[in-house]
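User: C-alpha cells for Glycosyltransferase, please.
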Amino acid sequence: FIALTNSRAFRRLGNYPEPTRLPRISVLVPARNEAKNIQACVESLLNQNYPDFEVVVLDDESTDDTWERLKRLRKKDNRLKIIKGKSLPEGWIGKHWACHQLSQKARGELYLFTDADTRHHPSTLQDAVAAFEAENADFMTALPREEAETFGEKLTIPIMSFGIISFLPVGIAHRSHSPLLSLTVGQFMMIRADTYEEIGGHESVKQDVLDDVSLGRRVKAHRLNWRIVDACNHINCRMYNNIQEVSDGFSKNLFATFGNSVFIYIPVWLWLTAVFIFPVFVIGLAVAGGNVSETCLLLALVTIGFSLILWSITHLRFRYPLYLTLLYPVMVFLWVVMAMRSMVLSLAGQTFWKGRNLDLDTDLIEDIDDEEAEVRDRTV
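Assistant: Done. Predicted C-alpha cells:
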C-alpha cells in the first residue's frame, strides 16, 4: 500500500511548475580524500543553468591531492570558491565540522549541502527550487540515482531506495511533524538559511553520526516543513566501489539510524528476516519433501508474491536490473549481516570513516523527542 501511494506522493524533480522567484543558492560541498570524484562533481555544479548561485568547496584535511585538484579547478573558473578546512576541534565529527565552516562562508538565501561524489544534471538547481517553492518547504532532501556497477553493489545498494519506497509513507511524512517520520539523504539537503540558523545548524548535531537524519528530525521538531523528492533523473552518485566499501560505509551509521537502541534494532531486523527470508526457506523445505502445512505454504507463497511486486517497483523506478528482483532474499540477508556488524562495531566504539573514529550519540531519538516537546511548549 505504501509503495503504491508513494508512486504519486514521492514526486520527481522536473514535475513541478516553474518557480515564481529564483533566490540565491549557496552550494556547499565538503570534500575529504575525494580526488577521484571532485572534478566531475564541481564541473557539474558550475554547469548549472540557474542564474544566481555560488559553489563553495571545503577541503577537509585530505591526505590525497583533493586540494591540488580544487586549485586547478579554481584557476579555470573563478566562480568556484575553495576553502582549506581548519583542524577538527574536540567534540565534533569531521563532516559536520566541514559543513559548519561552509555555512559560515555561505551568502545565499538557500543552502544546498551536497556530497563530493555526486554529479548533477544542469537543471538540478532550477528544478529543485521549483519543487522547494511548490512544496512550501523549509528543508528538502532528495534521493539521487545511486549507481551500482559491480555485482556486490547491485546486491546491496538498491535496498536504500527500496526502504523509502516501501516503508516511508511520504504523503503522511510531509503532513506530520513527527521527527521519526522522516528520512533525510545527506547527498542533497536544501534548507533556508534562516531555518538552518533556527534549528542550530550543524553545531546542534556535531556529535551525531547521522547529521543528515538529525537535521531533518530537528526541522520537524521545530514544526517546520520537511520534504523529500525523487532526484534520480537529476543527480547520480556512486557511493562505493565494491561490496567491502558498502559494508564499511553502512556499518558506520546503520545502527545509529535506529537511535543506537538494541531494543528497536533487533526486532526490526528479525521482522525483515521473517518477511523476506523465512518464506523462501519454507518453500525450499516443501520442495525437499519436508512436512509443511498447506497454510504455511500458502502464507509463504503470498508473502513471496508481494515481495516480488515491491522489489519490482523499486528496480523499475530507480532503473536497477530487473533480474535482481529474484535475488531479494540474498539482498536482505547481506543487509542483515551488515546490520549486525554495524551494531557490534558501534557498541564496541570501533566505527571509523576516512581515518577518523566516530563518537556515537546514543541518545539521538531521545534528544530529538525532548526538543520537540520544548518547541511544542513554547508554541503553547
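User: Anything notable?

Assistant: The chain has a mean pLDDT of 91.
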